[in-house]
Write a structure and sequence with these properties.
36% strand; 8 strands; alpha+beta; three-stranded antiparallel β-sheet; 3 helices; Secondary thiamine-phosphate synthase enzyme (chains A, B, C); Jelly Rolls; 138 residues; five-stranded antiparallel β-sheet; homotrimer
Chain lengths: 138, 138, 138
């Protein structure tokens, strides 16, 4: 499978975008052992794996990112033409990365009990986000 | 290969967990060219590649992470029910990531001279950690 | 393909190293659907994907990294034997990572419009850098 799957979310890490899971469920079932590669087509959002249970973990992660990457008039950025939240978003995207590779076992993503896929939107006003998913294996 | 390999370590990045290397050595030998994917089943630890020689690099990395992610009563986290080291561990896990993909050449991991696999334990009291290893190639 | 491709760059993130693109263009054309894995053989440089248009984004990213990872006599590092820029480089390497996996579609890297491959040199005086590229797919 190699399709484009749009997803949107407000500024915040969000776990387990339902669109992603729904899009690949049937394709996953064809693999006994393999890898699922998720690739975000953007430089101001990111994909990461983290806690899928308590939504405070997502809020706290946003708190951390906003503290560590300065924003607004006092920030030292030269790249400001697209808004004060743009350069911080680029930095956060490289910090967390825009791709994930997850093992497939017996037709399902083989993740830990508490692991969920987070789509992290780092812009204030999100546009639709495209994820390319590539499945491989036997 | 797609097995679960337990590993434990105190809070600190540790290079080259011997359990990992031992578990995959014979399987690796079957591949002339390929990829080894290591996937940690947890959200409060991480996998990264870094210097495998001077253990001070691991200590300094821990110093950096502890400075950059605040911990304790004055930290701004809402997710504190599992202890003051838990939310910082989640953040560090997303910063470094929980997976590695390493090329295989002629039956061995094709890494640089100074590169070692680090299992980074971000909790104070580690529980056993599970790594799923998937090898592919020819 | 699994070859070593040398590349050099001064301290700064640089997008789209031409050597990389040139090295794999003809090999890529053999794949209708697959994955390209780029793996840097070093612990004081990194690979990331980010904005490929405005070079200020690279400058601002360097500004961020230099602010967040202290350097020089007042920095807390024990690992200083290779120079004051060495331990910060190790940390930045783990923050951004030393590997990328990018989907291949119809013989080309399937990236977003604004995504470019950045080779981030974190040492002041760069030595040649080796990247191992592994292509897989159908």
């Amino acid at each position: 499978d190699d399709g484009r799957h749009p997803a949107t979310a407000p500024r915040l890490p969000h776990h387990h975008p339902q669109e992603i899971m729904h899009a690949i469920r049937s394709d996953l079932s064809e693999f006994k052992c393999g890898l699922a590669h998720l690739f975000l087509h953007h430089t101001s959002a990111s994909l990461t794996l983290n806690e899928n249970y308590d939504p405070d973990v997502q809020t706290d992660t946003e708190t951390f990112l906003s503290r560590i990457v300065p924003e607004g008039p006092s920030a030292p950025w030269r790249h400001t033409i697209e808004g004060s939240d743009d350069m911080p978003a680029h930095i956060k995207s490289s910090m967390f990365g825009c791709a994930l590779t997850i093992p497939i076992t017996d037709g399902r993503l083989n993740m830990g009990t508490w692991q969920g896929i987070w789509l992290c939107e780092h812009r204030d006003y999100a546009t639709p986000r495209t994820i390319v998913i590539t499945l491989s294996g036997i």
